Every structure is written in structure tokens, then in C-alpha cells.
Amino acid sequence: MIKYEINAMGIIEINKEIIKIIKLIKINKLFEAFNLIDLLIEKYNLSLLKEQKNKLFDIYKNILKYSFTGIKDPERDKIFNNLKKSTIQLTDSLKSNLILKNKNFVTSNLKNEVDFEFKTNKAIIENAIINNEKDKNFAYFFNKIWLSEKILESDFLFIDSLISEKKIDWVSQSVIVSAISISLFNCFDDKKFELLFKFYKTKQEKVWHRALVGIVIGVYLFSDRLDFYPELNNKIKKIIKDDDFKKNITLIIAQILSTKETEKITRKLHNEIMPEVAKFKPKIEDKLKLDDIIHDSLSEDKNPDWETVFGDSPELLKKLEEFSKLQTEGGDVFMSAFAMLKHFDFFKETYNWFLPFYKENNTIEDAMKFEKEGFNSTLFTEGLEKSAFLCNSDKYSFVLNIKFMPEAQKSMILDMFSAELESMNELVKDDELLNKSMKNKYIFTQYIQDLYRFFKLYSYKNEFIDIFNDDFDFYSKDVISSSWFSIDLFKQIGEFYFDKEYFVDALNVYKIVFEKGIKDQDIIEKIAFSYQKLKDYENALEFYKKSELFETHLEWTTKKIALCYRELGNNQMAIEYYLKAEKNEPDNLYVQAHLGHTYLRLKDYEKALKHYFKVEYFAPSNMLILRPIAWCSFMQGKFDNSLKYYKKLIDKNEINHFDYMDMGHVEWITNNVEAAVEYYRKSLRGFNNNFELFIKEFSEDKENLIKFGIDAFEIDLLIDFLAIDY
């Protein structure tokens, strides 16, 4: 037998093969699925799975045999579904075994180490859990759970007893819920779901929130398996009857979808906001008299000059305001800043990525052991614990980083941050008094951000699949949308996608709403606009025409219909609708410009000029309108006027290589050959001296040159002259 390198497959390769097999099982192509399973078993010498696979394949052969020998089996479909379920479970085991075979995976070695510890010290480990000890035994237990393919019956019963008898504190419960959730995301197991439901039902604050997040993501990831588990399916459908479930599911889904924006926010911070701040720094330093700080004590008041400083840079102020808005909406604005602070030993222990931030933690007490006159570390950590604007993981990063700061910097940061914490926590307190769901929102947001950091920043993240690379199109999963979604939730999700310009998803969601009979103008307009942004002008036009029937928003709708006709090449209908728009908004320069553009397409240069001149008159600062005026004048044979407008482009430094070519045409037609050649040379330079590209564009105008009296032979000679000169 050929020997293969057993550690050759990475997690992405493994997952690709597993997904392929499960897809085949779902569409009832079991023969192909068994073949692929067999290939992997043989290739990686997974002899323990061979017998299980053979038993299942024998069942399949029997089903096929009885199906085509005239013997009717009323139980056949039930047996076949059970076979599919068992084959998927075998595929899960195959995935786990392939991962364990990879000797380079640290998590595989960790699993082996943990399994050994449990065999020898299970009673000691469980006793440590019951005593709420956050030590190496707690780490063993966490790792045992999150690295398990399936929850063992003994582990299930132990965790169940912890829940039912309330033996452990909320912190330990929170971490165990996370272990179960991460384990579930890695490998389906109905017992993991059952434990999450049990934790959810306790209604222990901050614990049930995590359990519900685990349930929601788990149901999304494995929605297509749930029909095999009717009891679990019933729980999923019944959970909607719980108090405030609809509000909570909305908050969770909104925050999960917000993670799609995290990379955008990070790029915006690095590419737009930080460069603006850096560029603005000298002025800020001057106005804030930073050089004098050494001679003066820091004021606790906020600097009144900041407003005028930022007033000098409205772009920066606008970006900072946008950044602040993103934060209040749940945008993960701190991911970039704290990504660099996950190198502490604290984060080498996996469970610490999910540890709630609580002031009694020894790690915090140790980090805050320093002398600073007038500083109350207890009040500070209490304030940080209550803060809603940093996730738990980032709070630990912040405190651990303070520990290693120079004293002067530490003092300044603590003073500043204490003041900010106080004001932020007042806002949080007000929000919670006004709205109970706001408190839930903060908890969900922090936990989902903790999850995001684990999947994106954990040292061994490449050893399991990053769930946050998924589309999270909850609306497309029938078990979720049919059981949990209300029309309002569909609308809210559609609005998120629409607002963030994910137009494919927005369109899919709004079409579901439309098909459910909600045919409000707002929905129809957004469907139309999404089609338009996706350049599907035919469907966009269909829905804009539906919107037109409402006889409201007509100014906007009329212009959109005109645009669609124009993009579809129906210029006559485009003109008809632009003229309607002009009647409604005679001073709208957008309409005037597009009337000009459409007449230009129809080669009605006289009418095009009429509208372009209106734009020029009412918007004299708009230099771009000069170009179509110059071109239309040229095509009408008004060469003096054409040249005048091209020269205006030169004066305003708006000239480009196409304009120089057109100026060459005008000069040649009016017998200024030397001037024409000079403009052609400038045009060629504008094409980066790419003569082929220049000639290609030049040839497009050959017909016009001939029309205005230039002999075709002369054109050929000019091209050769330019080529030799080039």
C-alpha cells in the first residue's frame, strides 16, 4: 500500500473535503459520498472508521436491493433518513480524526494531553470546577469540552448537575458556555445544543446571553441537519415564545452582521482617520500648548480650544463623528487598537479569551498593584467592569498593558481614562434605565466581539474554521426565517444590508418581504435601487415603474426611471422621463445635464447644447460641463466655439489627453495644421506614449474628420508622420 504523509492536510483542505461529502449526502448521492469517505479513510489509515463505514454502506446496499426487487418496505424512507444522519455523523468523526492526524496542530496535541489528564485526574479536575477554582484544572476542563467532537455522557451529566444544582458562579458558567459553543461550531452535537438550552433557561445574567448567542450561531451553521433531530427542532421553534426573544434575536443577528463591517472600520481607521490626525498633529500641538505640559499640571477639564481646532479641519471632525456613530451602533471600532495587545501570557490560556471581566480576578489585582497618589484602583476596575464600550477581551488587554507602562504615561492614561469611564458609564446607566433591551444589547455586543477576537487573533486560529468568514445570511435558512423571523426583523436586516451597501443581500431580503405581501413603496424603491446598483436595469425599471403608481416621491422615481431607460439604450423613453422630471424640477441641474447626455447619444447636438448651457449658466464653477459643450459645438461645425471651450479647460487645468486630441481635430479642420500636430503630440503623451492606444482612439474620430473635409489619404499620412516623429 502507498504510504501518504498523514499530516499533509490543513484545516481548510479538511473542511473542503468534509463539506463536499456532506453536500453529497444531503442530495441523496450516498454512493459518491461513501467513495470519498473510503478514499480518505484509506489514504490516512483511519482503520477505526473503516468498520463503521462498511456497516453503513451495507445498509445502503440493502436499501437499493429491496427498492428494485419488487419488495415494498413501508419503513424504507425512515431507514434511509437514519442512514443519512448516521453517515453525516461518520463524516464528523472523519473530520475530527483527520485533524488529530495532523501532528503540526497544537490543538491536536493539546487534546491528547487533556484526555490523558482526565483519565488520571478526573475527580480532582471536577472538584476544582465545583469549587470555582480558575486554575490549570479549570483550563483542562475548558479544553476538554471545546476540543471534543461529541460530549461524552459522563461530561454531559456532570455539566447538567452544575446547572441544575447551581454549584458554580456566573463567571465559571460563562466560560463553560463558551467552551460548549466553540465546540459546537467546530462539530455538530445535539447534546451540546441541549446544554446550551439548559444554560439559557437558567436566566443567569450574562450566562443566558452567551448561551443564546451559541444557540443562534449553531442553528445557523447546522440548519440543514435539524430535520434529523425532531426534539431539538421543537426546542428551536418553541423558544420564540420566551419573553423578549424577538428583541434579543434581533440584537444578536444585528451584532453578528455588524462583524462584517469590522475590517472596513479597521481600514477606515488606518487609511483615513489616523493619517488625518497625523497630518493635523502640529497644529493641535501648538493650540493645545503641549510643550508647556511639563511646567503645568494637567487640567481635568476638556480643552475648549478643541472645537476650534477641529473646526479648521471639518473633514477630520466629520470622520471622527462618523467613527463615534459606528461605535454607538455596535461597530467594532477597537479591534484594530487591541489586536496588538493579545501577546500577553494571559491569552496563551484559551479559556481567558472568554473570561468575563470581573474586578475580583487575580490577574486584574496583580496588574493594578502600583502606587499612584489619589488613585483608587478598586473604583477604576469597577468602572471598567461596567463599561459597555470595550469587550471583555479588550478590557484585559487594557489592564495588562497598563502594568507595563512607564509611570508618567501610566498616570496620564489612568487620569484620562477614569474621566471617560465615568461619563460613559453614566450614559450606559441612563440607557439601561430607559430600556432594558439596551443592557442586553451591550452584553451581546461584548460577547460577540470576544468571539470575533478569538477567531481572528487566537494563536492557533488556523487549526479550526473561522465562522466569521461565513456570509451569515440568516434570512436564507428556512428553520430560522420561518421559526424566528418577523416581518420587522426581515426589514431590519434588509436595512442593515442596504445601509452598508451589501446590495445582493439587501435585494434577497427585500424580495422575501415583498413576496410575503408587504408591498410598501419603501420596500419597492429599495428593491429597485438594489437592482440598479447591481446594474440589472431591466428589473430595476420594473420596480421603479411599480413605485411610480404610488404617485409619491415622483421627482426621485421619475429620474430613476429615466436613468434605467438610458442605461438600457432606450434613449427616446429616457428623454420622455427626463422631460417629465424637468417639468417637476425646472432648476434641477442633474436633470438638465442628463437631458444633454441623452440628446448627445441621439446625436441631437443642438438640443444637447441647450441643456448644457443651462448647467453652465447656473453652475459656472462646474468645469466638467465645458467638455461636452466643446464636443457638441465641434460636432455642429461651430469650431470657434468648440476651441474656446477647450481653451477654457486648459485655463482651468482640467484638460486631458482626449481633449487635446479633439483640439487637434478642430485645428486641422480649420487649416491650422501645425497647431493640430502639436495638440496630437500632447494627446499622445497623455496616453503615456502608447501609440497603439492613441491610434485606436484617433481612428474612432476618422469619420468625423472626413465629414468636415479632411481627406482619408491625409489622415493616413498624418498617422505615419506622428509614428515617425514618435
Helix percentage: over 70%
Distance between the termini: 68 Å
- Classify the secondary structure makeup into a structural class: mainly alpha
Please, what is the CATH homologous superfamily of the largest domain? Tetratricopeptide repeat domain
Low-confidence stretches: 1-6, 280-313
Shape: globular
How many domain units?
5
Please outline the major beta sheet: none
The assigned CATH architecture of the largest domain is: Alpha Horseshoe
Structure description:
It is a single chain. With 726 residues, this protein is mostly helical. The protein folds into 5 domains: 11-101, no CATH class; 106-242, no CATH class; 261-328, no CATH class; 334-434; 535-725, Serine Threonine Protein Phosphatase 5, Tetratricopeptide repeat, CATH 1.25.40.10. The chain is built from 37 helices and no strands. The protein has helices spanning 11-26, 30-43, 47-67, 76-101, 106-130, 136-146, 153-164, 170-186, 190-202, 207-221, 230-238, 245-258, 262-287, 306-311, 314-328, 335-339, 362-367, 377-386, 392-403, 407-434, 436-457, 478-483, 487-499, 503-515, 521-533, 537-548, 554-567, 571-584, 589-601, 605-618, 626-635, 639-651, 657-669, 673-686, 691-700, 702-707, 712-725.
